[in-house]
Structures are given as structure tokens and as C-alpha cells.
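Backbone Fold Data
Goal — C-alpha cells
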Amino acid sequence: MYKFFKRLLDLVISLIALIILLPVFSLIIIILKFTAEGEVFYFQERIGINNSRFQIWKFATMLKNSMNMGSGSITLQNDFRVTKIGVFLRKTKINELPQIINILKGDISLVGPRPLVTKTFSAYNAEVQSKIYNVKPGLTGIGSIIFRDEESIISAVTDEEPHDFYKRVIAPYKGQLEMWYQEHRSLYLDFQLIFMTAFVILAPATRLYEKWFKDLPKREF
């Protein structure tokens, strides 16, 4: 029953959101078409449920071929690959909204672990890799909320290569968070995480989630 109502929730909310956001989408599409490199959407292979592969939709925020430039799969604060309009879209998370299409298609859910590229996924240990996508990945989730400022966290590290820091520090904790979600998942928790996602966009410095979810894995950095 949980899976049925979760899918129903995905369809209802994403359809309503798509209708409401059509004017915003139209404006962004026009702006992107006539700025930077003229790219509107960015498609990238990500890992989905049961470690399958799918193409994720995003608004284009970075230069073409950016995966082969700079820090590759990791985006840093003030990253030279991010376009001017891309800075705004990424900060407000508007760049993620085309993933409503992925929700409608059934690639992802509203809530779940973020779908990763293969290189970033490989930073998880073998146990997490085998379990994290036993549930459908999501547009948002507990990992996305706590690491909403991931670019700033990585950029603040000056004595270690970004990918090494991600693998040593961030990936292990993200893995713990997503295992926590799987142990506690419910429609009520999904609603809480949807609300918290909107709240942290408006109040980025908040740590309200620590009060709501008192049994979260302990953060040590």
C-alpha cells in the first residue's frame, strides 16, 4: 500500500506543480535559449532504482562538456563552469524542477536518495551501493536537505582534493542518512521532507531537521 500511495502522491503533486510552473518554465526556457551557450536542458545518465540507468532532466546551468573540465562531477562554490543564470537557478534549486518529467515517467519519486552519476556513486562503500537504490531515487530527500550547501562545504577544504574529501567525509555520512531514510520511510516522513525542502530554501541556515528527526546519524564535520 505504501508504494501505491507514494506513486499516487508523486503523480498528483508533480502534475499540479507542472501546471502551476508552466509560465515559469516558459520564461526560463526563453532566457536560457538566448544566454550563455543557448542550451536549455541538460541530460545526464544517473543511477536509478535497483541500480538501473536513466536520463535525468535539468535546466542547463553549466558550460557544455563541463564534466571534462575543472573538478568534473563535483561542483565547487564559484565554479567557473556555472553560467550567470545558472548561479541563480542552482541557488534556488529551480534547475532541478524539470525532474518533474522524470517523476511522471516513474524514473524517480518526490522523495528518496538523490540519483548519482557512476563516479559519485562509487564513493559509497559496497554495502550502501547494494542497498541505497532498493527504493526509487528522489527529487529531494534527507541527504539533499542536510547537504543543500555541499558546494560550500567542499570548497572550504583547501588541503585535500575535492573528490578525495567527498569519498572520505561526505559519501559515508550521506550513505548513513539514506539508510536511515529506508529504515523509517513512510508517507508521513515523505511529507515532512517535502516541507523541510521548501523551508531550507527559504532559510538556508536552519537546522530544524535536527529537532524533527532526533535519531539522525550523528554528523561529525
In short: Residues 2-33 form the longest helix (32 residues). The mean pLDDT is 92. The first strand starts at residue 41 and ends at 47. Residues 173 and 218 are 8 Å apart (CA to CA).
